[in-house]
Amino acid sequence: MYKWLILPILFRFDAEQVHHFVCGTLQFLFKIPGVPFLFRQLFVYEDPSLEREVFGLKFKNPVGLAAGFDKNAELVEEMAGLGFGFVEIGTVTPLAQLGNDKPRLFRLKPDQALINRMGFNNQGAAAAAKRLRQRKTNILIGGNIGKNKLTPNENALDDYLKCFDELYDTVDYFVVNVSSPNTPGLRDLQEKEPLTKILLALKKRSQKLENRQSATTTKEPKPILLKIAPDLTDSQLDDIIEIVTTSKIAGVIATNTTISRADLATDGEIVKKIGAGGLSGAPLTHRSTEVIRYICQKSNHSFPVIGVGGIGSPEEAREKLDAGASLVQIYTGFIYEGPALAKRICKSLK
Fold first, then answer.
1. 2-349 sits in which CATH class?
2. What is the tens place of the pLDDT at every residue in 267-296?
3. Which residues are catalytic, by number?
4. Which segments are annotated as binding site for substrate?
5. Annotated binding site
6. Is the bond preceding residue 233 a cis peptide, omega within 30 degrees?
7. CA-CA-CA-CA dihedral for 91, 345, 9, 266, to nearest 10
8. Where exactly are the structural domains of the chain?
9. How far apart are CA 97 and CA 168, in angstroms?
């Protein structure tokens, strides 16, 4: 029903407006007694065989919601009710910011893809942390953090540390986002020197915060992951592997959106008119899987990888896992395929 009735109606309206409408509708429905239970019956698939332990955390299933869908931690309960094993909020910045000018989210229907240039629009780390402290579900939460647009790259570390401090007691793992194409200069932070500096500083801060919270016992600090772009060369991926290994962070999320527009079915003039932004969805499927396989093989599976990019079916999720990913995340496929996608993937993995 979703693909032949609901989706065509939703796709008649602006993509970002529809996103806010759907999110608002979910929030409203989940306040009605009995609806959360009904959603769980319809969309949650549980089986012990789906459980995973990755970077010290126990996941009920390996299918997560990728960052970007729930930027402000407003839909954690609702996403748990739609069958996800974990939810990644953000990208969150220290200060609230409006993001880039609208329109900034576009559908490429022939490609089952999206182009976005949102620009880290969010309400700030403090607002997200406040909501997470009030949540009722125990679903695992990832905190995807970035820098404010007006913060120069030489001061980027300060922004990552501020987000880290604000969210530390409210999330289960952190994701350092230096790979979005929609914040000017952000991808420059993927270079070896600045990236190593950021990751080592966050590792040090994590240990300090954990020791402060657990004065009588020594606990492992919160896992830190790095989210990388699909547009990196093999040489750059080799650098990423070296950085992750030497900094001893928990793992990698591969991949973010791409700036490539190769081999699209959508009319070239339409794509050109849309302009800049990160492309997600089906056109990214093959490249993101390539990156996952390269990293896992070249690193000899020395750290976990979360696979994301173009997953719109159980088969595509399986391809990511077979390439070496320990977990997967969905976003664009969730929009095109509907609310049952996480359940479908979980059932296929049993």
1. alpha beta
2. 999 999 999 999 999 999 999 999 999 999
3. 180
4. 71, 116-120, 177, 182, 256-257
5. 67-71, 91, 116-120, 144, 177, 182, 227, 255-257, 281, 310, 331-332
6. no
7. 70
8. 2-349
9. 21
